[in-house]
Specification:
The chain has 387 residues and is of the alpha+beta class. The chain has helices at 4-23, 29-42, 46-52, 58-69, 84-87, 92-98, 120-130, 141-152, 158-177, 230-238, 243-255, 297-304, 316-324, 354-385; strands spanning 72-73, 100-106, 109-114, 133-138, 261-267, 270-276, 289-291, 308-312, 331-340, 343-351. The chain has two domains: 4-180, 2-Layer Sandwich (GMP Synthetase, Chain A, domain 3), CATH 3.30.300; 230-385, Beta-Lactamase, CATH 3.30.450.40.
Length: 387
């Protein structure tokens, strides 16, 4: 679940990061607005959106975060080269629970990449469990996820898998265009702990940071006996602090009538799972990937930009969503696109009896329209807060 603390600090953290990037000449106001819009639609940290859009690279972001958050700086790729003696200080269970990767041990100090550096209770818990003073590092969100995947087996979402490939290709291209330098010019790339003395010592004990909580959270099914309240839904959409607030409000409402419903994000040539009302223990919904290039109800809706009401016929791509809900085809479905500023952002999928779906068609189309407004409002609020 997205924490209240995270919600209250999201806008301020974006403002500070954006100002630092602009002051460094790495970003202009139009690019910052583009990244904020992207983040509002697709989630994650602002820095992740900046990297994904190709506006800055990992090292630039890490250096700015180091200045902004007053944290030690390390080259992000060094987090992939941590020795086992350090990694073994934190168990897999603890690493995945707190989203933390240890980097360097110095006596009782343990320097770590940590996703929630604003969560002082988590830092205190880690310090107690590990019997070390925890010193958070300035590490981009995407690199932390990749390191958790390599060292502790975190299952990456399709987004991070794609972004990993983009980063590798950019690094290879930069390496090819980089002039040859002395063999001694960059020793720290070959030694994950040799660069400790070169870190800027910017407040080892400070825990104030801009980090956001991960946008991945677990669905807890609501009490369907509770009376549906459209006014309450619209109120939630009007005050949504992030994209996950929007998704949860919609799915909670529709789930009262249709237990098999979900929202999927549209990303170039695929739709990826975002939030489903039913949790499949064998397959996280965020791992769902459906191609828009092959025949499916999602491809039909994406190309037409209009809703579909009818049978979900048997096809390989349609089977992916039906298998998740443990149903056999054909099934009756209602599929509605959500478009924000002419961008197809996500698709609402609802499975149920055709007559019942038809009765709710106008209502759910109206909800989709309200959700589009909520996205636009969220983008505007974050652009205002960005200064």
């Amino acid at each position: 679940m997205i924490s209240t603390d995270h919600q209250s600090t999201l806008g301020a953290s974006q403002r500070r990061l954006g100002e630092h990037l602009q002051a460094a000449g790495l970003l202009n106001s139009e690019q910052l607005c583009e990244a904020i819009e992207y983040q509002c639609l697709y989630g994650g940290k602002l820095g992740t959106s900046l990297i994904e859009l190709g506006l800055i690279d990992e090292k630039q972001l890490a250096r700015i975060l180091s200045q902004q958050l007053k944290r030690h700086y390390i080259k992000p790729e060094l987090l992939m080269k941590v020795p086992n003696s350090v990694l073994n200080l934190i168990s897999k269970k603890t690493a995945l629970k707190y989203q933390v990767v240890p980097y360097h041990k110095d006596g009782k100090k343990l320097f770590v990449a940590l996703n929630e550096t604003t969560n002082l209770s988590n830092i205190d818990e880690l310090s107690f469990q590990l019997d070390h003073i925890i010193i958070p590092l300035a590490i981009p969100e995407v690199r932390l996820m990749l390191a958790l995947n390599k060292h502790y087996g975190l299952q990456l979402t399709p987004r991070y898998k794609t972004l990993s490939g983009q980063i590798n290709r950019r690094m290879q291209a930069a390496q090819k265009s980089k002039p040859q330098t002395s063999l001694y010019a960059d020793k720290e790339s070959n030694n994950s702990s040799a660069d400790v003395s070169a870190w800027p010592l910017l407040g080892d004990t400070s825990h104030a940071a801009e980090d956001e909580e991960s946008s991945n959270y677990y669905w807890s099914e609501p009490d369907r006996k509770a009376e549906k309240n459209t006014t309450d839904l619209y109120q939630k959409l009007s005050i949504a602090q992030d994209r996950d607030d929007i998704a949860k409000a919609i799915i909670t409402y529709i789930n009262a009538d249709f237990p098999k419903c979900a929202l999927l994000m549209v990303r170039k040539e695929t739709v990826n799972g975002w939030l489903a009302a039913v949790e499949n223990r064998n397959q996280p919904f965020e791992q769902i990937i459906i191609s828009l290039q092959d025949h499916s109800v999602f491809g039909l809706v994406a190309s037409s930009r209009s809703h579909y009401l009818g049978p979900l016929i048997d096809s390989p791509q349609n089977c992916i969503i039906s298998d998740y809900f443990a149903t056999k085809l054909p099934q009756d479905v209602l599929v509605i696109p959500l478009t924000v500023q002419e961008r197809l952002v996500c698709i609402l999928y609802i499975q149920g009896d055709i007559d019942n779906l038809r009765q709710h068609l106008d209502e759910y189309q109206n909800i989709a329209s309200k959700a589009e407004m909520s996205f636009k409002l969220l983008i505007l609020k974050n652009k205002i807060l960005a200064g």
